């Protein structure tokens, strides 16, 4: 057996293991913010990623487009049919919007939990080892991104901001949601039913909505939206659709399975959602 | 100019891991199997074979730390593993005949070791509850498969490039 380590090196190895354990402990604490060296490293690597990533994405996008062309005819037929529905829906939405505006003016209520400022961002990288599904996007604290903000695609909610550096930020996808990062949501119905998105069922590829009272009325196909209670999420971001209702662990609550509207894996461009009501509150505080 | 070739290659391998995952088609396969590209580790093993363990350890530590900071946010895990694997690869080269088969097998062994080690850490801190069989089925063999495919194509290119860099450095 040849010797891999001399005595000195063995000591060095042991010391490194101790430091490793300490560092892991340090990073496991739930941190509000990353330390500035970490932020700097992230931004620097983000820049390099953008440099190499853009050409790669262009090529991949082109191949995807060629693939899409094959299905164009069928999709086109389908879309034409949908377009007519859309026109009717749009007039209705416009009317409702105007009415809502008038009523709000009557009440003198300007800000709502629903209003938000969208921050457009592009995915520039992914965690390659995928023990935690995170993506890196090209907007950071300098663009107004803060920790815990909601991240959506046009289809619906996909995740939340885990950490924001100055020019990039890390987004934790809904498929990697853990117990410490629950999202307040409600099931839309005659009476809204409130609950918390608690996790992700990997087998069914569906979200778990928990903490719902056992006597609450929830039906299949109902829509689930963010509630805007707690945290910095605005109200009314679409999350998904109810697929199944099960009794909870102790029989006092129900668990609802929610199929997300958005594709949680295939994400290229995202919108980071900044709630306007927070900005207004901040301004008020600063004015004082 | 020649001084920058090796660092450039390192950066390229490092960044290409993330890009590879990003442009990978996101079908059912992507969701069920975890194909983890380990291009940088392959670069590291080859560097250890061509330029000796000490230099590879330097690269391993720096880029391992970058990996921790940028991707996993779990400091120290990759920095430690990359440095150690670079050291071991450097040691192994001393009593192995350096040829393509050796670098091929050594790279795969390093990948298997690294992935098992990271799995162990994740298990330890409670971020996963997969038994080893699931880890093997969904993670380890797809990862080895992807990297074998990469090695079959990329190994001759990388080997030649590194040999060229070494010749240039010796010529100076």
UniProtKB/TrEMBL annotation, chain A:
Keyword Coiled coil part of the UniProt annotation: yes
User: Gene3D superfamilies under this entry?
Assistant: Rod shape-determining protein MreC, domain 1, Rod shape-determining protein MreC, domain 2, Single helix bin
Q: Which domain of life is it from?
A: Bacteria
Ranges for domain Rod shape-determining protein MreC beta-barrel core come to 123-274
Query: What InterPro entries does the record tag this protein with?
Result: Cell/Rod_1, Cell/Rod_MreC_2, MreC, MreC_beta-barrel_core
Which portions of this protein are annotated as coiled-coil regions? 79-113
Asked if the keyword Chaperone belongs to this entry, the reply reads no
Entry's family note = Belongs to the MreC family.
Chain's role: Involved in formation and maintenance of cell shape.
* Record protein name field: Cell shape-determining protein MreC
Which species expresses this protein natively?
Geobacillus icigianus
TrEMBL record, chain B:
Keyword annotations for this protein, in alphabetical order, are: Cell membrane, Cell shape, Membrane, Transmembrane, Transmembrane helix
Kindly give the InterPro entries that the UniProt entry links to this protein: Cell_shape_determining_MreD (IPR007227)
Q: Which domain of life is it from?
A: Bacteria
Q: Where in the cell is it found?
A: Cell membrane
Q: How does it sit in the membrane?
A: Multi-pass membrane protein
Where does the sequence pass through the membrane?
30-49, 61-88, 100-119, 140-158
Q: Is-annotated flag, keyword Transmembrane helix?
A: yes
Q: Which family does it belong to?
A: Belongs to the MreD family.
The protein in question is named Rod shape-determining protein MreD
